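Annex B. Sample input.
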Amino acid sequence: MEFKRRKTKQIKIGDVPIGGGAPIVVQSMTKTDTRDAQATILQIKRLEMVGCEIIRIAVPDKESVDSLEEIIKKVNIPVIADIHFDYRLAVESIKKGVHGLRINPGNIGSKTRIKEVVKAAKDKGVPIRVGVNAGSLEKDILEKYGKASPEALVESALKNIRIIGEMDFHLMKVSIKASDVLRTLESLKLLAQHVDYPFHAGITEAGPLFSGSVKSSAGLALILKEGLADTIRISLTAPPEEEVRAAYMILSSLGLRKRGLNFVSCPVCGRCRVDLPEMAVEIENRIKDIKKPLTVAVMGCEVNGPGEAREADIGIACGKGYGLIFKHGKSFRKVKAEDMVDEFVKEVKAAAKEIKK
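Annex B, continued. Sample output.
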């Protein structure tokens, strides 16, 4: 199945292209106190290791702005300042060297204040994300529609895009987010009829790791199928590294990016003679930071096990007291039950090293 992308302008956050046919970019947001520069830098470094390509940082006060310069100097990916309420924080963040801004026009203030932010961004060539959230819609628009409907969300986005565009500023990407899948999808479809700016997409406040990943997967599969995402973030109540892993897993499963693991394991039935759930979790945890594209299968019995293991780049089919490791479709090694996890992890890491890119 081919996923068609909508045609958009292209912008760059730092040296990362977004839209205009560029690969869909994976981003996340720090969950540290930005005033603690060292903790924030360490978290971003961990995110870089799992493939985060752009990082957004909350900037709620002057002390947070003061940390930005040190953070930007010590990380290797572009930094976006996330600003709410106080337009002066956006202006000061630009002076500190951020690569992008995210503002929510619903709470940033008057048209005059938005123009102050745009002027500063224009002077430095810093792109702006116009971010509209169902939970923070302008009061007048909320009163007009009675609720944060797709039409209300799009009206908010278009109003603020016009304000920025009137200043001859077009380094924009746009997001419309709600915590439910269908409203987010319908809002983006409606907005796409009006603008050709790149879209940042995701299901906001999706939830904890399990339920949030499920909801985000459902939502982004629909959004990506419609070609309505140029950069994505998975919003989880979980460590940000899990957001990045989930994002790549979604993109990989749809054939849109090839990075990291495609992990396959059987659901277990009465034929299984090993503790496969525990085994699969341990294996996945021990190999989760592999960045190269690799399909790994951990299977529990002789029915589907050998077939799935053969189809993977590397797989193991478990029998009673032993495991049969397959590599590139062929039987490779037979290992004892007590050695299965250690030996299989070793072979997976070796297989990853063999991949040239």
